[in-house]
Design goal:
By secondary structure, this protein is an alpha+beta fold. The chain has two domains: 2-34 and 48-90 and 435-698, Alpha/Beta hydrolase fold, catalytic domain (Rossmann fold, 3-Layer(aba) Sandwich); 101-289, 7 Propeller (Methylamine Dehydrogenase, Chain H), CATH 2.130.10.120. β7 and β8 form a beta hairpin. The longest helix is centred in the last third of the chain and has 18 residues, at 681-698. It comes from Notoacmeibacter ruber. GO terms for molecular function: serine-type endopeptidase activity.
Length: 708
């Protein structure tokens, strides 16, 4: 592999760690499978997530050796990384602030200070006046190796704030109540999901408790001033395969308990005034039936796929009895138009939908049924619907950006149809959109499907196959990667890179079918689509195969592992962040936090031999072979409950054992973080700079200064 020579000088005095092999064999469905690196899984992982110091010393020694090796091979990029960090930080307005959102007598927002890693949560009188800091994220994070804020939510009477934080990276959040007037904390509850929902009286809140396996199992009601041991259990979920959350409504009339997996939904309701603490089922779970509720005064609006509405439709039902028998259709299903979400206001119903791969916002007058769409001009763009904290309003907010256009926040009047720019993303170091080009390409996959590919490049970049390319992909859980403005990407683009996003199957970029044809038995479509995107970029002379660096994280990291096995010659390098690469082993371990809820996405190999064989055929760790793998960088977090650290650790060990190319395999693990990496906005940039330096090294562009 030509690119391995880029690492030759830096690896002369550094030998990669060699993980010991401990024989282990498991038989399922009469199929035997060996796993010599199974010992890397900490047996006490539940305890270790709460206290990382409990990690087995032998495992810790191996992981630290991996970090030392990665540092040695990347030592010659130190100056480059400093330059990249400086550039990316220079594109962030350090003292940035949000546009406060009105709610009753106040307006709420966030702001940062120069050098600050975490936001301050603030409020002002609605029409302007003295600013009050409700929560200072930097102050709360002081002295902690890791700190991440959960939700921050003010009470209906505006006297208190409920906020959550995680100090380990394991996503066991502590909820705290703070006085908005005196800034002192009172009630504190551990092992929660990170958010809570206030009761209407502001003297109590509902929250989700996580069990020892990090699963949301119980909804409780906490009365302020009472010990957590006295909290009232409102609902307990017995099915390990279901996620659970609790939320409220704009009118503060209802508490909603959502129980769901990736295919099925069930809602329970109880009045927010606590007059009845027995939640009532809207419609009992029915496999494959999904629905979401949105309060609309005397009705509920229901976004659902009922009756074969794959791309969803909108129904309504009276609040008095919103059971499925009373649902009445108001926005019919339209194949190819995927309704993503809805928001209800006194006079209007707003929906965010996607058609022909692009998002749009549609406003519906609730009385007349008349609809209009908010129009946009660019070829590829991203939209976000901000909504409002208030119900009785004609104004909503939405954000707009494209790969060349910084994010813009607009206020939109649903009656007058006037659009007012509230804020435009400031790029302090400067940004001239006219210097860049963004395009939407269509790549033909193995079965004839056309895969959208969004690309960004500098207008002076030669399109003769010589440009390096970072190709990003995800392709799972129906998540679509938007063609939005990414300030970090310009550190590559300004160095002659093409930055590309492959909108592959497994996401919902082209509707619900795009998702369904990229999951379970058809999962390999996701991988073929990504390989096809790379081939298209090469055949149209945007780049060449040995200059494409593929990147993906989490399930996108699984994509990286799969394409490395299927087509190692298609990529000059691979960056796999928190990669879900040991799919079969994880789906066979029903003690892990996400395994039972993930079976609808991947299949259940415990119960089904067909599912076992399907997953075994693509699971990256299980398919590592004697192949010419390109240089690979894997990144992970020690306390990650979503993709456990031992998945990439095992993958890296096996890659080194089998690779025939001699190309280096690097593994960098953050010993103080979890799935999302470093928590501060600037410390996170250091991790991005490391990944980008790897990409630049593979491409032979390690000069710190920008050049094309």
């Amino acid at each position: 592999m030509m690119t391995s020579s880029k690492f030759a000088s830096s690896s002369e005095n550094a030998a990669p760690p060699v993980a010991k092999k401990v024989a282990f064999e498991e038989t399922r469905h009469a199929i035997a499978r060996s796993d010599d690196y199974a010992w890397l899984r900490a047996e006490n992982w539940q305890d270790m997530f709460h206290d990382p110091s409990l990690l087995d010393p032998a495992i810790r020694t191996h992981l630290e050796a991996e970090n030392a090796y990665a540092a040695a091979l990347m030592a010659d990029t130190e100056e480059l990384r400093k330059t990249l960090f400086s550039e990316m930080k220079g594109r962030i307005k350090e003292d940035d602030s949000s546009v406060p959102i009105p709610d009753g007598p106040y307006a709420y927002g966030t702001k940062y200070v120069l050098g600050g890693e975490h936001p301050k949560f603030i409020r002002t009188p609605r029409d302007g006046g003295e600013e009050v800091v409700l929560l200072d994220g930097d102050a709360e994070a002081e002295g902690k190796a890791y700190f991440r804020l959960g939700s921050v939510d003010h009470s209906p009477n505006h006297r208190r704030v409920l906020w959550g934080h995680d100090a380990k990276g394991s996503e066991f959040y502590t909820l705290v109540v703070r006085s908005a007037e005196q800034s002192n904390d009172s009630d504190r509850i551990t092992n929660t999901g990170g958010s809570g929902t206030w009761a209407a009286n502001s003297d109590a809140f509902f929250y989700t408790r996580l069990d020892e396996n990090h699963r949301p199992k119980e909804i409780l009601l906490h009365q302020l001033g009472e010990p957590a041991s006295e909290d009232v259990s409102i609902y307990t979920e017995t099915d390990d395969g279901m996620f659970m959350s609790v939320g409220g409504t704009r009118l503060n009339d209802w508490i909603m308990i959502s129980v769901h997996d990736h295919e099925t939904t069930e809602f329970r309701l109880l009045p927010a005034d606590l007059s009845d603490l027995t939640p009532k089922i809207v419609h009992p779970r029915e496999e494959g039936l999904q629905y979401e509720l949105e309060e609309g005064g005397d009705v509920f609006f229901i976004l659902t796929n009922a009756d074969g509405a794959k791309d969803f439709k909108v129904m309504e039902a009276a609040v008095a009895d919103p059971s499925k028998a009373n649902w009445r259709e108001i926005v019919p299903h339209e194949a190819g138009r995927l309704i993503l979400s809805i928001a209800s206001f006194a006079g209007h119903l707003v929906r965010l939908e996607k058609q022909d791969g692009l998002p749009r916002i549609v406003i519906r007058d609730r009385k007349s049924g008349e609809e209009h769409e908010i129009a946009f001009d660019e070829e590829a763009y991203s939209l976000g619907l901000g909504g409002s904290l208030e119900y009785d309003t004609t104004k909503i907010r939405f954000s707009y950006s494209s790969m060349t256009t910084p994010s813009q926040l607009y206020e939109y009047d649903m009656v007058t149809r006037e659009r007012r720019l509230l804020k435009e993303q400031d790029v302090p170091s400067g940004h001239d959109a006219s210097q860049y080009v963004t395009r939407r390409l269509q790549a033909r996959s193995h079965d004839g499907e056309m895969v959208p590919v969004s690309i960004l490049y500098h207008k002076d970049t030669p399109l003769d196959g010589s440009a390096p390319c970072l190709l990003y992909g995800y392709g799972s859980y129906g998540i679509s990667i938007p063609a939005s403005f990414n300030t970090n990407a310009f550190s590559l683009v300004d160095r002659g890179f093409i930055y590309a996003i492959a909108h592959i199957r497994g996401g919902k970029d082209k509707g619900w079918d795009w998702y369904e044809t990229g999951k379970r038995g058809r999962k390999t479509n996701t991988f073929h689509d990504f390989i096809a995107a790379a081939a298209h970029l090469v055949s149209h002379e945007f780049t060449s195969h040995d200059r494409i660096i593929a990147q993906g994280g989490s399930a996108g990291g699984m994509l990286m592992g799969a394409v490395a096995n299927m087509a190692p010659e298609s990529f000059g390098g691979i960056i796999a962040e928190v990669p879900f690469v040991d799919v079969l082993t994880t789906m066979l371990d029903d003690t892990l936090p996400l395994t039972p809820p993930e079976w609808p996405e991947w299949g259940n190999p415990i119960e089904s031999e067909d599912d076992y064989r399907t997953i075994a055929a693509y699971s990256p760790v299980d398919n590592v072979a004697a192949l010419p793998y390109p240089p690979i960088l894997a990144l992970a977090g020690l306390t990650d409950p979503r993709v456990t650290y031992w998945e990439p650790a095992k993958w890296v060990a096996k890659l080194r054992e089998y690779s025939t190319s001699g190309a280096p395999v690097l593994f960098k693990i953050n010993m103080d973080a979890g799935h999302a990496g470093a928590s501060g906005r600037f410390s996170r940039l250091e991790e991005v700079a490391f990944s980008y330096a790897f990409a630049l090294k593979v491409a032979g562009k390690t000069d710190a200064e920008i050049s094309r």
